[in-house]
Automatic annotation (TrEMBL):
Subcellular location: Cell membrane
Domain ABC transmembrane type-1: 286-475
Protein name: Amino acid ABC transporter substrate-binding protein, PAAT family (TC 3.A.1.3.-)/amino acid ABC transporter membrane protein, PAAT family (TC 3.A.1.3.-)
Entry keyword annotation includes Membrane: yes
Signal peptide range in chain numbering: 1-29
Length: 483
């Protein structure tokens, strides 16, 4: 029976997925009792990477001091702001420090520390812009970063001044949208835009003496949890303000030369200079991308092969199950699936899922569904006479599939496999949204430090093109060998 043939295969795949999940869980558990702290890794001067690829900033220095004085350790989880906040809300992280403004809506979901910084909101345009006042924004489009107090402040003015808003997930893209003239202005926390302008971003603050009320910046934990951590943060913050440590940290990032953190800014004048000064970061990002790609390709191919075999089974149950799985995971956008596994699922099962494990499972389920579809198509495209001839020679359906149909069908699908390999490599970039430090996330962190978006993303694009070209050559060679 075909059903019996697939039971061991399904058992192996289920066991494998559980092994991936449990391995990640054990690794995560081994880190305890330290705290898991999420952050927005591209929000200078609060959170960013320095020239040595170490996470620094006002938030990082305060957190380091709190940990030191209270004798605990922490594991940092840098990612996009919204994902970082959701990690805490769903119990994936113990706290978030990310230049996050305190407001009533957030107090419904989180417990929050005393404010450790009072921020004002500035509005910004290109230098020499004809827009001199907020009234000049009427009919124009303003860029805002999702989830920030500056975005809330800007949105609160849109009806009064008659402008439209356009939202972005990261700061650098928002800035460059204004620089390139796609949007007329943006709203941003004053210390953040100060840092970007000092670092070469071609923007100008309008009326810097007339800032909007951004409110207080705080450290957040999930409501009703980690009360001790919150108490330690508040107690240490008060001590730091009293003994002068707090003022030293603030002055370090707001009043010092930015070369202290980004190194020799002459390196930013060319793509070669940026590549040379950040070669270790690019290499680490490329290695992480390669690990995800290779593991994703191999495991998604195995999963897709199983789905393809199930889709050609005699049993209606297995065919229906294959069709349902393929339809479901092909229909889900990759980023939605990644967020569901990494942020949504732990809130349901009550267990943390490491980012790499979540990213790998995302690739397996999504890419495997596409692989299963074309593998099933390859098997179905084998002339039905081949099956009938095999059966007439006394072979069972299972034997005919494995000895006659599968070999011919797989040969037909080799070009599709090659294409799927390349797609898998490119899709790893989407996993930067859940904090995996692959090539794209590496670029985001470097841009946050040096504000050289064009040059950095040019380097990233060239690296991807080189790797994809090499993968294509290898795949074509393999195709010729097989055929």
């Amino acid at each position: 029976m075909v059903t019996k043939r697939y039971k061991p295969l399904l058992a192996v795949m289920v066991a494998f997925f559980l092994a991936i999940f449990m391995a990640g869980t054990r690794a995560d558990a081994a880190q305890k009792p330290n705290y898991i702290i999420s952050t927005d890794a591209a929000y200078a001067p609060f959170d960013f990477q320095d020239k040595n690829n170490q996470y620094v900033g006002i938030d990082m220095d305060i957190l380091k001091e709190v940990a030191k004085r209270n004798n605990f350790t922490y594991t940092l989880k840098p990612m996009s702001f919204n994902a970082a906040a959701q990690m805490v809300a769903n119990g994936q992280a113990d706290g978030i420090i990310a230049g996050m403004m305190i407001n009533d809506a957030r107090k419904q979901v989180y417990d929050v520390s005393d404010p450790y910084y009072q921020s004002g909101v500035a509005w910004i345009t290109k230098p020499n812009s004809k827009i001199k006042s907020l009234s000049d924004l009427k009919g124009k489009t303003v860029a805002l970063k999702t989830g920030t107090a500056a975005a809330n402040y800007g949105a609160s003015l849109k009806d009064k001044y008659g402008f439209k808003v356009k939202y972005f997930n990261d700061t650098d893209t928002m800035y460059n949208d204004v620089v390139n003239g796609n949007t007329a202005a943006t709203f941003e926390d004053y210390p953040v835009i100060q840092y970007a302008i000092k670092n070469g971003m071609k923007l100008e603050v309008r009326n810097p003496k007339d800032l909007g009320n951004g409110g207080g910046v705080g450290f957040f934990v999930k409501k009703g949890e980690n009360a001790l951590l919150l108490q330690q943060f508040n107690t240490t913050l008060a001590e730091m303000k009293k003994d002068g440590t707090y003022d030293k940290i603030i002055n370090k990032y707001l009043n010092s030369s930015q070369k202290t953190f980004v190194g020799d800014t002459s390196d930013n004048n060319s793509m070669w200079g940026i590549l040379k000064s950040n070669k270790s970061a690019f290499w680490k990002g490329l290695v992480e991308t390669a690990k995800l790609t290779v593991a994703g390709i191999v495991l998604a191919s195995l999963w897709g092969l199983l789905l393809g075999l199930m889709g050609t089974a005699q049993s209606k149950f297995w065919r229906g199950l294959s069709t349902t799985i393929i339809y479901t995971f092909r229909g889900l956008p990759l980023m939605v699936l990644a967020f569901f596994i990494y942020i949504g699922l732990p809130g349901v099962i009550g267990m943390k899922i490491p980012a790499f494990t979540a990213g790998l499972l995302t690739l397996i389920l999504n890419e495997g569904a596409y692989t299963g579809a074309f593998v099933r198509g390859g098997f179905d495209s084998v002339n039905i006479g081949q099956m009938e001839a095999a059966r007439s020679l006394g072979l069972s359906h299972r034997q005919a599939m494995w000895k006659v149909v599968v070999p011919q069908g797989l040969k037909m699908t080799v070009p599709s496999f090659v294409n799927q390999f390349i797609i898998t490599l490119k899709d790893t970039s989407i996993l930067s949204a859940i904090g995996i430090l692959e090539l794209t996330q590496t670029g985001t962190l470097i841009v946050a430090r040096n504000s050289q978006g064009f040059r950095v993303w040019g380097i990233i694009a060239i690296i991807y093109l080189i790797v994809i070209t090499l993968l294509t050559w290898f795949s074509n060679w393999l195709e010729k060998k097989i055929n």
